[in-house]
Amino acid sequence: MQVSLRIARLIFHFLRGIALAVLVFPRVERALQQSMVRDWSRRLLEICGVKLVVHQSGEVLEHSVMLVGNHVSWLDIYVINAWRPVSFVAKAEVQKWPIVGWLAKTIGTVFIRRDKRSDALRIVHQLADALKSGERICIFPEGTTSDGAQLLPFHANLLQAPIAAMAAVQPICLMYENAQGRQSLAPAYIGEVSLGASLISILRAAPLTAHLYITAPLGACDDRRELARCAQGAVHRALQLLQQRLEQSPEAAVVVNAQVSGVELN
User: Fold this and answer.
1) Is the whole-model pTM more than 0.90?
2) What are the tens digits of pLDDT across the range 157-171?
3) What strands, in cross-sheet order, belong to the sheet with 50-56?
């Protein structure tokens, strides 16, 4: 599909999302809100030419869990929501993004100012309360995006929230694959790349496969730095497994790309 046609379909999709967020979202129950977020995110991936494949290596927790993962692109949020809607923690600058920032706020994203040390403490209390009430929350403790080829160090501050709430932590890993069965860096939203340029890069690289690896939940821990170390180790191992899988059987990866867009479990 031509990039210009995909852009036109994306504009319509975002306009539809705004209409749903204004007219429907506030008036329906939580379960239906989450279903709307999941379906809208899946449709977004489809328009962008991205297929989601989910890998699981253990029990997937439904409630009172903090997902902790690597961060490659703004697209990560929609990949995760296409699998299972969660509340995210994002940098305050995201609120200023056209349309995307407003939609993120509408679906419950928590924004943090990284230039204010006191803001982290406020967010920790807010996240702990949400976890105690049974919410699913996702954070990207690298603190910024990378190209996805390797991990950046995990920051531990926000991991105080699951400790305070006595909630579980479940590491996740994201990796993107191109049509040749190799890891794709096209979705990477790094450096001085603008949101628009990042979007064009994704559309030009399509078709892509987004691999989402759900690792086993971590054991109980009362030290946030140790928790960050364990989470980073789990995400690192998952990323290595995904990368090795492509290196060992690129032909199989191409076949996956050729299938109908949707969500698959491996």
Assistant:
1) no
2) 999 999 999 999 999
3) 110-112, 87-91, 136-139, 65-69, 168-177, 208-214, 50-56, 263-265
